[in-house]
Design goal:
The complex is a heterodimer.
Chain A (H helix, E strand, L loop, with lengths): L1 H4 L3 H17 L1 H21 L7 E7 L4 H12 L3 E6 L3 H10 L4 E5 L3 H6 L7 E4 L4 H22 L28 H31 L2 H7 L4 H29 L9 H25 L3 H18 L11 H9 L1 H15 L3 H16 L1
Parallel strand pairs in A: 1-2, 1-3
Antiparallel strand pairs in A: 3-4
Helix pairs in contact in A: 2-10, 3-8, 3-10, 4-7, 8-10, 8-11, 8-12, 8-14, 10-11, 11-12, 11-14, 11-15, 14-15
Chain B lengths: L4 E12 L2 E12 L3 E5 L6 H8 L7 E6 L2 E2 L4 H7 E4 L11 H11 L5 H12 L14 H13 L5 E5 L7 H16 L3 E6 L2 H5 L3 E6 L2 E6 L1 H7 L3 E6 L4 H8 L6 E5 L2 E6 L2 H12 L5 E5 L3 H14 L6
Parallel strand pairs in B: 3-8, 3-9, 6-7, 7-8
Antiparallel strand pairs in B: 1-2, 1-4, 4-5, 9-10, 11-13, 11-14, 12-13
The chains are: A alpha/beta, B alpha/beta.
Chain lengths: ~375, ~300
């Protein structure tokens, strides 16, 4: 423990002061500290939407009747479909789909009404551009309930017998924590971890490689400063920055996106602190491996990518294959995402969060 | 251990990736001496300096720096040695004062503010103390670097090519400063490429491909090679130089524009040959003293040709 006892507080503090001074001079980095959370929040928060609505929809109507008009009108009111026009035939509709002009084509075949009246259960054909399945999934799943609604409402009186009999059982869906399935509620708290990961890993990764690249590391080594003092002096400013960023995101989440916050703010900061520390360790590791700043950047993105893809930030964690879940469980971001979403939306406490906290602690120590 | 020696290292060896960068280097620098460390790029100068100040552990060999063991007492060495790196290594995004202040804090100096003020005054940069270092010219940066590595009042300065890329006037000033420091009893080890600087040193060492080829005063170094040199004055002597090189007894020709140095170790033969070569031409011939540069070029060629221990 000689290492610790001989470390000088004043030298460590001097490292801290120097880091802050350099940060102050580096306008770009300084701008990034404030700018990145806000830009990313606006970009991802508003732009990423796994439940997109108002998708352009074309129609091929080969049977005009009261009932088909009602079906179309009801589909419109579901907000998923924006009717952009009617196609004369199948081929022009296909072309529009291929070009991406429309996301859906709803085709009402000839004699739809006639068949319906005869009780022959005619089918509506919906062609979807399923290039992005998440974009269409919700819309498609809404179609059946829309049709059922039409059936209940319109097929009355003499047409009553055509109304489908109520199913012998009923599937009742309760959407807990986010009843409106509002994607912002999921994305925005998740962004806190993503932004912190990116900034913390990148900045510490660069902080030490920058010294090496500019040759100033050699100078530091020649001075009687201990590696521990250098490391600790480098880390502390970034922990402070991390907490500032967490605060920016927290405020933005409340004000810009109106995300509900049920949990304890102290618990959130506590988790953020551990999370930031875990990421700083990654950054320090990267900086000791990378020979220059470019390599540090590349390594950061190498680390960042699985974090984005496997942490449950972008894709539902439970939807991933087993091996991907195993990798995901190693990443601190996975746990932090669960914590943050838990605190924000469910208001869960420390004991419920412990299973997520210890892996992060373990990660930062190893 | 000899108390008169600031640096006393023996048989230092260091290899990187199976290439022997420093091969059995022994160096003795007396206290209060300016010791010139010469050699081409990549010859192992920086590596040797780094081993002497405890930044790098030699594969084998031993030694002391200011009486401290270079293998085990690097912390002590760091406190008493000022090391100026080859590349400017202060923080360009900090001001002059911030840089000096930071260095002073690293050495946990008690009279920090005073030392910094004094250093700034010594540089004559008090009124520019709050300017960013990145905005300084090369010459000023080099002076700042010297002031910064002098801040903790070291007994020994290790300067790694301090004057590379510095204009002649600034170089002259710099050397005057070094001599002043030496008069105060500070030992200086300085690596350089410049021959005029080499001649300003009390002692010299020449390293090539990791091996020390010569050590001593410049006179000793020159005398040791037993070279005789003739100088030919004239214009367009490239062809003459080539012709001379093929002659017996001519071991080296070095062309400096309108001056041609011809050297060899057999004085009589050399004299006969050069006299014959300039016979009937307008070239002017005279015997001259062998310079350091002639000797270094000679040693470099020999080390290569004789297959001297390179690896």
């Amino acid at each position: 423990m000689m290492f610790f006892s001989k470390a000088s507080f004043s030298r460590w503090w001097s490292m801290v002061v120097k880091e802050f001074l350099q940060l102050k001079r580096d306008r770009l980095t300084f701008g990034m500290i404030v700018g990145i959370p806000i830009i990313q929040l606006t970009l991802f928060g508003y732009a990423i939407n796994s439940d997109p609505k108002h998708m352009p929809t074309g129609l091929i109507i080969e049977d005009h009747s009261e009932i088909t008009r009602t079906i179309i009108a009801t589909l419109k009111t579901s907000e998923y479909f924006d009717i952009v026009g009617e196609f004369a035939d199948e081929s022009s509709a296909s072309r529009a789909l291929a070009r991406g002009d429309v996301q859906f084509v709803i085709n009402i075949p000839p004699d739809f009404t006639k068949h319906l009246l005869r009780g022959e259960r005619p089918a509506l054909l919906i062609e979807a551009d399923a290039t992005d399945p998440t974009a269409t999934a919700m819309a498609l799943s809404s179609v059946n309930s829309v049709l059922e609604y039409v059936a209940r409402k319109d097929l009355t009186g003499p047409l009553q017998h055509l109304a489908p009999a109520p199913a012998p059982f009923e599937a009742r869906v309760h959407r807990l924590y986010n009843p409106e399935a509002n994607t912002h509620f999921n994305i925005v708290p998740g962004l806190m971890g993503v932004i912190l990961t990116m900034m913390m890993v990148l900045m510490t990764g660069l902080a030490i490689t920058r010294e090496r690249e500019r040759g100033t590391m050699e100078n530091l080594l020649a001075m009687p400063v201990k590696p521990l003092e250098v490391m600790a002096g480098k880390i502390v400013p970034y922990i402070a920055i991390g907490l500032v960023q967490a605060s920016i995101i927290l405020v933005a989440a409340r004000i810009m996106f109106g995300i509900p916050f049920f949990g304890s703010i102290f618990l959130l900061y506590f988790a953020a602190l551990i999370f930031v520390a875990a990421n700083l360790m990654v950054g320090i590791t990267i900086s000791s491996l990378a020979k220059n700043q470019l390599q540090a950047m590349q390594m950061t993105f190498f680390f960042f990518l699985p974090n984005i893809l496997l942490s449950g930030f972008m894709f539902p964690f439970r939807g991933m294959p087993q091996w991907a879940q195993v990798i995901g469980n190693v990443l601190p971001l996975t746990h932090f995402n669960r914590i943050v979403r838990g605190i924000f939306l469910k208001g869960i406490g420390f004991t419920d969060l412990w299973p997520q906290i210890w892996p992060m602690l373990l990660f930062s120590w190893s | 251990m000899n108390a008169d020696l600031a640096i006393d290292v023996r048989d230092l060896v260091k290899s990187f990736a199976h290439k022997r960068v420093v091969n059995q280097v022994s160096l003795q620098v007396k206290r209060g001496e300016i010791f010139g460390f010469l050699g081409p790029n990549g010859s192992g100068k920086t590596t040797t300096i780094r081993m002497m100040c405890g930044l790098l552990t030699p594969d084998s060999g031993s030694g002391t720096c200011l009486g401290y063991d270079i293998l085990h007492q690097s912390a002590h060495i760091k406190r008493h040695v000022g090391y100026m790196t080859q590349k400017f290594s202060y923080w360009e995004d900090l001001t002059l004062r911030e840089n000096l202040d930071f260095v002073a804090r690293m050495y946990t100096m008690d009279n920090r503010r005073h030392a910094v003020d004094e250093a700034l005054e010594g540089l004559g940069l008090t009124e520019r103390a709050n300017q960013l270092v990145g905005a300084l010219s090369g010459g000023w940066k080099q002076r700042l670097a010297l002031a910064a590595c002098m801040l903790h009042q070291p007994e020994l300065l290790l300067l790694d090519e301090p004057t590379a890329g510095v204009d002649p006037a600034a170089r002259r000033d710099f050397w005057e400063e070094l001599h002043q420091l030496a008069r105060k009893g500070i030992s200086v080890l300085v690596s350089t490429h410049y021959m005029d600087e080499a001649e300003r040193c009390h002692k010299l060492a020449y390293i090539f491909n990791g091996t020390l080829l010569a050590q001593g005063t410049s006179h000793e170094v020159v005398a040791a090679q037993k070279l005789t040199t003739w100088t030919i004055y004239g214009e367009h002597m490239a062809e003459l130089s080539e012709r001379l090189q093929r002659m017996d007894g001519v071991e080296q020709t070095v062309l400096f524009g309108t001056v041609l140095h011809v050297s060899g170790t057999r004085p009589e033969l050399l004299e006969r040959q050069v006299r014959a070569a300039v016979q009937g031409t307008s070239f002017r011939l005279e015997q001259s003293e062998t310079g350091l540069e002639d000797v270094f070029i000679f040693m470099m060629k020999h080390a290569g040709r004789d297959g001297a221990p390179l690896a």
